[in-house]
Amino acid sequence: MSNSDVSLHDVAEMLDVHYMTVYRYVRQGQLPATKVGRSWYVKPSDLELFRDAKAHSSEVSEGGKKIAPWAERLEAQLIQGDQRGAAEIMEAVLRSGHDLYFLYLQVLSPAMSAIGARWAAGNLEIFVEHRASNIAMRLIGQFGPRFARRGVSKGTVVLGSPADEMHTLSTSMVADLIRFEGWNVSDVGANMPAEAFAEAIRQGEDVVAVCIGVTMPGSLPAAQATIGAIRKVVPRDLPILVGGAGVPSDEVARKLGADRRSGSVHELIEVLGEVARRS
């Protein structure tokens, strides 16, 4: 903080708005601010940029949905370790008319990817990246259950990642999107031993498909072992689908023993839809 920084009360007077309006701008990531003790302060340069953005209507409407730099705002709050501020941004996204697909795929996922890239480039401490990931997981737990469909289920999809895969964020988002489309999801998480993964499927009820997420090429042998273990305990016609950055092609998927590779969440949902229509 420098002596020229402006308190939120002063910013409110300068913008001729209520203090809580300015506070909301800060919490939603629209106006960068630094917390010192129990007070927030804004750099004059950031205030000018904010005024200019407001004057030029940076938030526009497209098809009744507000368009704004949501991912960048969320990224800033996650880097600060501000879970409440991050949650308020995600609430604002939904209030602006967007759905869970947009929230996860166009806001949360890009924000986390940007944070990961910053860490990989040496521009963020690892504790910041880990803290942001933990906040993101808690946000998924907070927002995802709102979108679970009620009514008759299309069946159960068992979802997880093989041994040595430690990343759970992407599979958690995929699980919520599958639930959003009407399936039950048994999410066994990451780093799941092959035999345990297979046993989860064997004990499952009304299992219609298995989805295995692989984010790293180094996890391909474990994925192959997992699929082999699953094949021993399930009917041959139960589809096993793989996806993620670690599975770059259909050929790799076939070598693993999978039935299909899904290159995106939308493609996965389409494949599951085909399964539902055949059953």
Task: Please characterize this protein's 3D structure.
The structure is a single chain. With 279 residues, this protein is an alpha/beta fold. The chain folds into three domains: 1-58, Multidrug-efflux Transporter Regulator, Chain: A, Domain 2, CATH 1.10.1660; 59-147, Methyltransferase, Methionine Synthase (B12-binding Domains), Chain A, domain 1, CATH 1.10.1240.10; 150-278, Cobalamin-binding domain (Rossmann fold, 3-Layer(aba) Sandwich). It is 52% helix and 16% strand. The chain has a five-stranded parallel sheet with strand order 7-6-8-9-10, sandwiched between helices. Strands 1-3-2 form a three-stranded antiparallel sheet. The protein has a two-stranded antiparallel ribbon with strand order 4-5. A hairpin with a 2-residue loop joins strand 4 and strand 5. Helix 4 packs antiparallel against helix 5 and helix 7 (126-143) packs parallel to helix 8 (169-180). The N and C termini lie far apart (62 Å). The mean pLDDT is 90. Residues 154-279 form the B12-binding domain. GO terms for molecular function: cobalamin binding; DNA binding; metal ion binding. It holds the Pfam family HTH_17.
